[in-house]
Amino acid sequence: xxxxxxxxxxxxxxxxxxxxxxxxxxxxxxxxxxxxxxxxxxxxxxxxxxxxxxxxxxxxxxxxxxxxxxxxxxxxxxxxxxxxxxxxxxxxxxxxxxxxxxxxxxxxxxxxxxxxxxxxxxxxxxxxxxxxxxxxxxxxxxxxxxxxxxxxxxxxxxxxxxxxxxxxxxxxxxxxxxxxxxxxxxxxxxxxxxxxxxxxxxxxxxxxxxxxxxxxxxxxxxxxxxxxxxxxxxxxxxxxxxxxxxxxxxxxxxxxxxxxxxxxxxxxxxxxxxxxxxxxxxxxxxxxxxxxxxxxxxxxxxxxxxxxxxxxxxxxxxxxxxxxxxxxxxxxxxxxxxxxxxxxxx
Length: 346
What we know:
By secondary structure, this protein is α/β, with parallel strands linked by helices. It has nine helices and 14 strands.
């Protein structure tokens, strides 16, 4: 890692969509709190982005595991809202998420307490201005529909910004962004490895998160791994800190395609069972606990129909996201792994 690289999360501008409200910040030491939940098997679900079909598929995946005798706890780590600007989808997604363990992302924070930060995405300055402006417009529509559901809006605002969970004996920090900010970018794919592209389709002129920053995060948080999502693209990479292997695993998006010419979302499965699941795309055994990226193979035609009903051509979400929904991003599974994390054998 480039130890001299500055933290780009602190270099974003103060324009809407490119700033991080002070209320979105916390300290790595906050992860030293008692873990909740404590479980043997967990799905970490981030970046659902209002995709009801993806949510339904995740619930089917959980039910299938239950039939095999594996009880899976669901942990939502933010941005389960985004494209769901119709009342029925907004209600179902949020009522479902709130029945499980959850934290809020910048989207939920912006729904619950609008600020002058626009979408609250804290986009770095290598994200193009048009993409940022369209994200702010999407947030405006979401805030309008949330006004019809004050109880749900208040419940989203009451969600914590972070959690510590425990799987087996392993403590894991659950974040939306990174170890210091709900909308931080230190755990972005292009900040962990030199992969070249980011979620807006721009060339990612990002400098890597300094290794001394990563070491500090793990030391101060006293966790073995962080599970993140905020920055759209998946990446998992292990690090050695104080003689122990650590892991950052960003699932990218549960509700969007994550790789070129694909249509499935991704979630992170964490389990005391050290055997890789049959459908794992990549993963790692970390001190006796298994971390895997699982595909969420939702009904793509049904999702496209729902999406277009809310976001027709020339709308902000269509312009920014429809090509990714149909074709996937310019990103390969090989871009999603670093260090000792291994792709599953094909």
